[in-house]
Structure formats: structure tokens, C-alpha cells
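Hi there, hope your week has been kind to you so far. Do you reckon you could talk me through the fold, stretch by stretch? Thanks so much in advance, here it is.
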Amino acid sequence: MTVTRHEPSTILSKAVQANGFVFTAGVVADDLKEDVKGQTHQILAEIDRLFKLAGTDKTKVVSATIWVADIRTREAMNEAWTAWTGGANLPGRACIEAKLANPRALVEIAVIAAK
């Protein structure tokens, strides 16, 4: 099995291809001044970019894990998520309230997609 790591750093790779799947690391927004919906839009744009590097796209997402700093913001996050998915090709998904590494981060998303 070939494993391809995209944009590795000292602690993680932003995306990893293995066995016909693409796994992203948890992605947070670059501009943490945005609200949860704005941060989610940024995250999903970054996931699109990583998918392009790995040769897949959002229509092939099979699993998503979403962490929100405050579960009460889930509705606004879901608005951005629904706009991104278009309500089609929906993956299995978990949405969890969690304390994120950066206190200004309101949402973090990791996905797995087929190639």
C-alpha cells in the first residue's frame, strides 16, 4: 500500500492518501475573528483545496467529525455545511462540543473521502 502525505509539518500532515481514501487533519479557520459560520466556510474551502491536492472532492466524503466550541452554535455551522454539501452525498457525521486548542477557534473539521 502506498501512503502519500500532503503538506507535512513537524506534528502532522494536512492530508494523507492511503488505500483509496484521503484523510484530512482537523482543519481550523485562518481568520479566527469570524463567527462560527464564517470560520466553517473558511475550513470547508481549505478542505476543498486539500482534496484537490489529493485528487478527490467533497462528493466523495464518507465521514466527517466536527468539533464546535459551543454546541449552541451548531445551527450556524450547519448552515455553512449545508451550503457546502448542497444537501447531497452526505457522509456519516459526528458533531461534538469540545474545548479547541486555540480558544478563538469556534469549529474544527476533519473528513475522510474516497479517491
